[in-house]
Amino acid sequence: MIQFKYKPDGDVLKSFMKDNTFFRGIRGPVGSGKSVACSIEIFRRALMQEPDKSGKRKSRWAIIRNTNPQLRTTTIKTWLDWFPENDWGKFAWSVPYTHMITAGDLEMEVIFLALDRPEDVKKLLSLELTGVWVNEAREIPKSIIDACTMRVGRYPSVKDGGATWSGVICDTNSPEEDHWWSIMSGAVPVPDHISVEESRMLIKPDNWQFFTQPSGMIEVKDDDGTVIDYKPNDKAENSKNILDSYYSNLVQGKTKSWIDVYVMNRLGSIQDGKPVYNMFVADTHVSKEEIPVADGVPLYIGLDFGLTPAAVFGQKVRGRWLILQELVAFDMGIVRFAELLRSEIATRYGNLEINIYGDPSGDFRSQTDESTPFQVLRGAGLMARPTTSNDVSLRIESVSTVLNRMVDGQSGILIDFRCKELVKGFEGGYQYRRLQVSGERYEDKPLKDRYSHIHDAMQYLMLGAGEGRQVLGMNKPLETFNARVDYDVFQRKAKPARRQGLWARM
After folding, report:
1. Which member of 64, 170, 178, 187 lies 3.0 to 4.6 Å from 137 by CB, making a disulfide possible if both were Cys?
2. For 282-471, which CATH class?
3. What does CATH list as the number for 11-212?
4. Backbone phi and psi for residue 238, each to the nearest 5 degrees, phi listed first
């Protein structure tokens, strides 16, 4: 008879292990016992397998991590802490790493796979498995999870009695808000930019279940709601198996975003690079509620083109910038984006003076299309103008100056809390990439990624509105470009308008 002792320390851990759902995922802070629970769950399900005709309880499992170094140093280490070779049989350290455990009537084969090589993915797609454990699922794409669901329940074969239980279990620290886990678990709604076809793949099936553990600590806030300290959470799980000082030591010297993800178990991201705007403070620069549109105040829109076009909408009210809205699209050309932008302006800002500025490179024709982005915008009834400069340093400084500015005791800029991508970029997503050399060295230009597009648009807004001129010490007021009072945004061909300043705006 096999002797083995393990007791999950926490109600969520217990519920996770007792559940029989085909797919189960558990999300929690570091040190919450997730990985150990998944290791034990595989072993427990193997013991529950009904014996075949020969009296053996046979099962085959795959344990997956995204890279080989992480697989060896974390996942396999956790497994062997509980199932050491001296007690449970020799571990095969040649790829694919395999642990054959035979004890009494138990015969279980555990295969460890890293998915950083194409041949590893092919290996997964060829396996006949009882079940799969995906370790740190936030680093695994949904397509791999779907592949896992196809490979389980195939061993033992039906002629040999079939699997008593089969399925996929996953554990993870908190992923980003637009991750498949966040959406399918119901933590966030499906983003607007996701296509209908893709959104169907993110609807949680009835045979999927997600579990969320309590945070490791509790925030201590002052009267203004600012976090000033952390204290232990009495409901934190796995506390019997970690030092009392574990979390209090962990939060020392960490950023709030790091603590939010790894200790507070909140959705978010941690970047390895250096934030472009280290002066940004969410409690100061992000609104707590919706910012209303100011009547009679000109609206400025900054645009970035490409297949990930983006727009930022803002007004300058009594010397203070109010960023009202962001518009982000993925895999969308300028023609469709122009229609989307036109509709948004008509819906929310139709009675305002509109000033649109964009990337100067948008005035050049592409090799495949004779029209430029600015011509496409004009064809949609949107009079947009390129900024006078595309210098990255000047663009960044025009935003930094506003972030550092104080106006009547308030920050010089306030961003609507609904501008999720813009705020996440300010919090570190928009960053200088770390160079792969010794020491703290970074690239001299921001990383081009999902956050760079919306922040490019933000910079073009500030340059177009004159903040770049102030950076350069040019105090001459920038001419404004007034919208035509009689302009109908739904009319593609507007009547000739009298020029005011350099351009007639809309």
Report:
1. 170
2. alpha beta
3. 3.40.50.300
4. 65, 20
